[in-house]
Amino acid sequence: MLLSKTQDTESLFSEIVDRVSHVIYGKKREIRLALTCLFAGGHLLIEDRPGIGKTTMAKALSRCLGLEFSRVQFTSDLLPADILGSAVFEQQAAQFVFHEGPVFTQVLLADEINRATPRTQSALLEAMEELQVTTEGKTRPLPSPFFVIATLNPIEQAGTFALPESQLDRFLLRISMGYPGRQAEKMLLRAGETQHLLAEVSPVLNAEEVSRIRGEVQSVHMSDPLLDYIQDILEFTRTSSHFHTGLSPRAGLAILRAARTWAMIGGRKHGMPEDVQAVLPYVIGHRLRSADTFRELGFDRLVAVMRDVPVP
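User: That's the sequence. What structure does it adopt?
Assistant: Structure tokens below.
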């Protein structure tokens, strides 16, 4: 059943979250954050250990939104052409013909992205920023909407490469799935493998409706005091002794987009400080480094530090 014209935004997103929750147990907040990222026009980075449900959630979301899905397993021997595509000489046509790579889709799952070399990782930079691919001397647009969900293994695991800052900055949100709660895990143990449940996830939207809702995000009103609050957050990171380098103006725009979308998913046409606070750790956590160790601040410490910024 696709979106009804009379269905309000809040109930629509509740339905999407409920359908995905039939496959991923006990992770409604993470699903809502993933939807926020997609409808804000960004890309999502999911960092966690294998076996937590990252790939399953990506597949369930694409099915629920009626979007074309492709998956690339990143490995150390993966080449840029394996993602973007390449020209192959076809003898019958007596010419080179470009064969599109898996990046030409609407939802691209870059699975274990940090197992590929930095050169291969960077093949996604243009696609994520400009929604196009330049290869074989020609620029080709990507399908719309285009959304990258990348999964990331903890850097201490063997065979991983750190993502460069320029790559990290292309991701609007970074989330972690975490272990399921006891009740959710019991449901999982009772149900067994959930892969068969993916086939039962029916679309709520289609590509045209996803694009339309994306366009409506900009209409969510953000008052001047709320914009001042975002500016105060940016200024705090630039002057605080906690951080090595402060947030960029692009990070400020990312906070704004995510907060607007979080408000829209909640059924409101205006933003509130609570919307900013809800998305803030997931937008800025991978963009900041500790002044002392040049490492990322843990989630709890980051939340505690940002409480020093007065709320309007």
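Confidence is low (pLDDT under 50) at residues 1-6.
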